[in-house]
Write a structure and sequence with these properties.
By secondary structure, this protein is mainly alpha-helical. About 70% of the residues lie in helices and about 0% in strands.
Length: about 200
């Protein structure tokens, strides 16, 4: 894929790209909150996963109305993503997805289970789910690494405006640390494909 093809692809899938960008910001905020002991990070984690999954579906079918068809149903979104990409490891994260949906549903103070069973220890599982979800999005490496989302921010060495996001995405992120070498190799290969190197 070259720059012109990337631009065309991005234009055709602009809704998905916007969901990826918004999800990445929510995910960074989720990590910031949870690393500082704030349970509201769990709701932001649910929002991030929801938006990444909606991006997944929009990349497959840009005409789908994800808000109307799926609302905030993370479990339903994940099931649809798994059906579109058989063999995806997303099905291994059913418990995490169910807990995120529970946290999302219990987010208001007048709910009888408000903040019940909430734990900042859930961050590692959220990190692993987000990494896998972003990597499972059924698009080629070039848009996956150039859409100003998670992989771009943590791999790109020249984007100073995103340093705050990058800091929160990387800080104490064991899932990312384990995948970092592979992601950076893939990023360099993507740049070479685009003719950047």
């Amino acid at each position: 894929m070259n720059f012109v093809e990337l631009q065309e692809f991005t234009t055709q899938h602009i809704k998905a790209v916007e969901f990826v960008i918004a999800a990445t910001e929510d995910y960074a905020a989720c990590r910031c909150c949870l690393l500082n002991g704030l349970f509201s990070g769990l709701y932001l984690g649910a929002e991030a996963v929801e938006k990444y999954l909606k991006a997944f579906l929009l990349y497959v079918d840009p005409t789908i109305d994800v808000r109307k068809e799926y609302s905030h149903g993370i479990t339903k979104l994940a099931a649809k993503a798994c059906s579109l990409k058989p063999g995806s490891d997303l099905s291994q994260f059913t418990k995490v997805i169910d807990r995120l949906e529970m946290h999302h549903n219990n987010r208001y103070p007048d709910h009888p289970k408000f903040k019940r069973d909430a734990s900042t220890d859930e961050l590692l599982a959220i990190d692993e789910l987000v990494l896998l979800t972003v990597d499972s999005i059924p698009i080629s490496e070039v848009p996956k690494f150039r859409n100003f989302g998670y992989f771009f921010i943590v791999c790109c060495p020249w984007e100073p405006r995103m340093n705050t996001l990058k800091d929160w995405l990387e800080r104490q992120n064991l899932a990312l640390q384990r995948a970092r070498d592979s992601l950076e190799q893939r990023y360099r290969a993507m740049e070479k494909e685009l003719g950047c190197r």
